[in-house]
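Exercise 3.2. Students should predict the tertiary structure of the chain below and write it as structure tokens, then compare their answer with the key that follows.

Predict this chain's 3D structure.
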Amino acid sequence: MQSINVPGKSSWPELVGKNGGEAATTIISENPNVFVVIIPPSATGHVTAVTGDYNGSRVRVSVDDHCVVTSVPTIG
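Answer key:
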């Protein structure tokens, strides 16, 4: 399967520690060619399992129980 390269910004390290909803808004405003998926913590407090596929127009935003971004949002 061929990956899709989307023009524009591809990672947002400055959003770690910020509110997940605000992070999603920032990502879309800085790169309107992507869509954002918020990944909540699992019921056990660990990171929710996600598929391993690469999607060049998707940005996953992992958040904690307080909706705070826990890792660098990156295209993939």
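Discussion points: The chain has one helix and three strands. The chain has one domain: 13-75.
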